[in-house]
Amino acid sequence: MQEATATHPEGNTLFPIVLSIVAAAATGVLWAYANPIQLVPGVIQWRIFAFLPPLVGILLGWKSGFICGYLGTIVWSLLAGTFIPAHSLIVDGIMVGLTGLLPGLIFDPARTKFDRNTLIKIAAVCLIVGLVMVVAVSASLAYLGIFPFWWAVMYLGLSDIVPMIIGTPLLVVPALKILKSAHPAGFTRF
Asked: What is the mean pLDDT of residues 114-132?
């Protein structure tokens, strides 16, 4: 029975689902408590772990990346005391989820060679999806009267986009090696 599992590249399908939920919880906790640099004290921090949704999306699949970003946003907003139902559940959650979904759709480790050009493409995808996310979230915050639009674009861009374009390409290769060594029988991306 175990030999059959090892010969099929599909492997375990439950693994990425469980890991994406664990990553979502970790993402929310890290965003709430491990952001030492305050861009707007008490409101916007430099999210040094903003790379987690795109990284999870690439490694575990686009659905896993979306789960990590969406649930991570909900966990973070509840822990940080910034939960606004319409904003957090709809705009912020979905847009941050897309930062994990799109890189996961574009880059599949089974079909992608992670050379220098690919890492540059990952950074470019993170930049583009990050810009879309920041504009949508800023528009939502401006509509709700929380922050002026351009002010939110500037600070959210610094907060989220910079860590995504640096952290995701920097960590994808070592994270993939760790994941493969931890689960040598393979698994299906979710």
From this structure: 98
